[in-house]
Amino acid sequence: MAIEINAVKRDAKGTGASRRLRHAGSVPGVVYGGGKEAFPLEINAKELFLQFRHEAFHASVLTLIVDGKKESVLLRDFQMHPVRNTIQHVDFQRVSATEKIHVKVPFHFINADVAPGVKLGGGIVAHVLTEADVSCLAKDLPEFIEVDVAALEIGHSIHLSQIKLPKGVEFVQLAHGDDAAVASIAKTRGSVSATAEETPAA
What we know:
Number of helices: 5
Family: Belongs to the bacterial ribosomal protein bL25 family. CTC subfamily.
Function: This is one of the proteins that binds to the 5S RNA in the ribosome where it forms part of the central protuberance.
Strand order of the largest sheet: 1-3-2-6-5-4
Domain Large ribosomal subunit protein bL25 beta: 100-188
Organism: Methylotenera oryzisoli
Radius of gyration: 22 Å
Order of helices and strands: EHEEHEEEEHEEEEEHEH
Number of strands: 13
GO molecular function, one term: 5S rRNA binding
């Protein structure tokens, strides 16, 4: 999914200038990195918000178009209004085709309904992590990572080392020796009661 953001360079800086931009229907921002000069931007607020709602916007290499020139960037930071739920500011970082990037990528959990711990044990899938930091080249960055829980028994977990990753992608945590749990199947009150009933008294 290719996402493009149209922006223009802004000359006015400071809190007052940013406030005026927002009142005029634009969002102030900045682009930096890649061995080039950082400069401030302004982006149409409605267009940005439409893209911002997509999960891929937060975990994909984006195409930033400024004055007709395209650059590959990542969304690195943003500020939201605490009440209005509007975007107040965005930071974009340029990415290189030859240097690895670190990005948080969301997990998509599949086959929870057929997992033995759910289907037979009456448990529920608990999402221990909903995203993880990955390292890869920009061209290899996945929009999401599938976590297949089809084989999980009740009380068992699936860890980072058990998840199949696309070629060229690695988990940063795992590379540092932290094989964290991603999901587990926990007992519900109903399944605990059922187990107690099935167990004969000593």
